[in-house]
Structures are given as C-alpha cells and as structure tokens.
Design a protein that fits this description.
alpha/beta; 6-stranded mixed sheet; 10 helices; about 240 residues; Nucleotidyltransferase, domain 5
Length: about 240
C-alpha cells in the first residue's frame, strides 16, 4: 500500500510533492527535450529523509561539501562520470546517486515524470494564465490519482523549484486557474489549489526531484544511464 502522509486535526493526511524541471538536447534528433518530474514524500517522513540524504552526502563528499553544496543531477550523472566508470575508475558521484536512488526504492517513494518535446511546450512556461500546459496537467493528473489510491482523506501540497518571480507567477496562476476553474482541474480535489515555490538549496525534496528529473530526461538520450539505473523512475 502507498505510504500515507501525517494527519491533521480534521483527519486529513498530507503528501508533500516536490517538482523540478530539466532540459537536454536529444543526441539522436538534435531537438530540445524538457522534463517535469516530481517526488511524493509523506509529510511525517520528510525530516527523516532529509537527514538521511544529508548523511549520504557527508559519507561521499565530506561534511563541509555536504553542508555547502546542493544535489544537482546534471553534475552527478554527467557523461564524464560514466566515462570514468567505463575506464574502471570509481565515480563517487555515481555511487552517491545509486545509493540515494536505492533509498527512494526502500522507502517506496513514488516518482513521476512528464516529457515535453513539442515546440510550444518544451520550455514549460505556462504562458497563458487560462491554460495549464499539458506536461503540468498530465503530472497533476497522475499525482491526484496516486493520492486517491492511498485514501479518500489524503491530500497533496505541490511545491515547485523557484524559477524567478515572473515564471513563478505564470506557472502559479495557470495552476490555480486550472484547479479552480476547469472541470478537469476541479476533479483533482485532493490537490491543494495554491502551489508553493522554494529555492532548491532550502529543500531536500526539490534536490531529490532534480535527480529524478535529470535521470528521466537523460533516459531519452543516454543508453549508459538506462543500463546503470534500471527502473529507477517509476510511472
């Protein structure tokens, strides 16, 4: 059974869902590919996961580096790190990424990803306040369905990585209008209608989502990643 969040006085349980974006150029087509990914973490488990992630960072990179640097998927999963392993060298960054992904599996945390390749969607901008772009809609649909599977009293709070005040406002308004004013959006009653935005440096959840996002995006272009991390991004 999916993990539930903690319950408030009304008996509702909250799931914290952190979202991040990533872009790469497809090696085969030369076209830009965007990915919107998310990780769902029960509120009651969030602090413990944050402590565990920090402990892993200390283990692999030392206390000072763990304290000052955030987790960046593009740095952990760079082609250079895979070339090192191909040459039979040890990659500390890949070792850290593997252990972190194993931690997500052990905790049975759910991850989601929506790939955008269309010219009008790839930048994930939500330029119209009256229309939530399709990659966002698909992701919210899947998150809402997952939360509903846990139970009728489960609720989710959506937090996006900060992209600056202008883009935050665009995405936030389109998100709110979709959930409040559209028939489809109103059916996702288990999602909080107000999204949140935070700096990745302040939120372990965003950093974990960044790794998932990078891995999901890279899976469209890099065979070594698919071999190294099989089934690491659940649907």
């Amino acid at each position: 059974m999916p993990a539930s969040g903690s319950r408030n006085a009304a008996g509702e349980a909250w799931m914290l869902v952190f979202c991040d974006e990533s872009w790469r150029t497809n090696d085969e087509t030369g076209k830009k590919v965007g990915t919107l990914a998310a990780v769902a973490i029960p509120e009651a488990a969030y602090n413990d996961l944050s402590d565990r992630v920090f402990g892993l960072a200390v283990k692999y990179f030392g206390f000072e580096n763990a304290r000052l640097r955030e987790i960046k998927g593009k740095q952990l999963l760079s082609p250079y790190e895979f070339r090192r392993e191909t040459a039979n060298e040890v990659s500390i960054k890949l070792s850290f990424a593997r252990e972190l992904l194993e931690e997500l599996r052990t905790r049975k945390l759910k991850v989601f990803a929506s790939i955008a390749a269309g010219e009008k969607e790839v930048d994930l901008l939500c330029e119209s306040p009256d229309q939530l772009d399709r990659p966002y809609r698909f992701l919210m649909e899947r998150i809402s369905a997952y939360v509903g599977e846990i139970g009728p009293d489960e609720r989710a709070i959506i937090t996006f990585d900060d992209r600056g005040s202008r883009l935050n406002a665009q995405v936030g308004e389109a998100y709110r209008n979709f959930l409040s004013r559209s028939r489809t959006g109103r059916s996702f009653g288990n999602l909080a209608r107000t999204p949140f935005f935070t700096y990745s440096t302040l939120a372990t959840g965003i950093q974990v989502a960044d790794l998932v996002c990078t891995l999901s995006t890279a899976s469209t272009r890099a065979r070594p990643l698919r071999r190294a991390f099989p089934s690491s991004t659940g649907s």
